[in-house]
């Protein structure tokens, strides 16, 4: 963790701001790769993850695009309303759960709304290295799309197609994803329903899972009404912990002073991911792939629960 200063706060749209972060002495920041995100510690005590959207070869600032979400749990509202130029914030070093597959012969990037942030960084990197790619950017209207001028004046502007649903109609996903080339990898980011539509269409068109990459900003909401209690056994001590239906495994373990790292608390960042030794989990995170869920090798205690009566964790 280290401290940065907000050196710019730019209004991209009515509800999206770009924040530029730099060290106070303007020294180089830790290097990052396209698709990476940082943990941002906010003045109100929350920790939120934001994708970096500046070119990865820029080592003196990090840029994040933040949507003021009407359903915000306090993160985006705090940034929009309380954080300004000159303020100092604590951040983590970048981590990447959404990397480019550099062996691909072509990269197909599909962004929905604020999901442009990691994909813009990917486009910058792919253009810088001369790789083959195309970017499709979906938004309701030009006024609600961030970074339009930056994209239109970039060296890769001719590889970007905008889809504005209010004026030009929605992206024809079936046509775009038909007859997939085996060397092409697909990357998508945006609201959960948008990404689900992209990924489901791709699967129906014959894309295999290893070539599908996604970055979720939030896990799907769960009412919790059908949740039941289960047990967690700590492998190192043999201690068995009761997890009631109305509390997460992470909350219970923290209450018992069990040392486990965490950040987002909603299954997005992977910080609390713990090795699973036995038991059948009910995976509810969005940072692991379906293949990783099927292997049942990890468990996200912040959001996931159990299908079996007990899970044994490598803690």
Would you summarize the structure shown here?
With 315 residues, the chain is an alpha/beta fold.
List the helices and strands and how they pair.
Blueprint: E1 2-13, E2 16-22, E3 37-41, E4 47-51, E5 62-67, H1 75-82, E6 88-91, E7 106-112, H2 116-129, E8 133-139, H3 148-152, E9 160-164, H4 173-177, E10 184-189, H5 192-204, E11 212-215, E12 230-234, E13 240-243, H6 249-255, E14 274-278, E15 281-282, H7 290-295, E16 298-299, E17 305-306, E18 310-313
Parallel strand pairs: 7-8, 7-10, 8-9, 10-11, 12-18
Antiparallel strand pairs: 1-2, 1-6, 2-5, 3-4, 3-6, 12-13, 14-16, 14-18, 15-17
Domain 2Fe-2S ferredoxin-type: 230-315
Pfam families: DmmA-like_N, Fer2
InterPro entries: 2Fe-2S_ferredoxin-like_sf, 2Fe-2S_ferredoxin-type, 2Fe2S_fd_BS, Beta-grasp_dom_sf, DmmA-like_N, FAD-bd_FR_type, FNR_nucleotide-bd, MRET
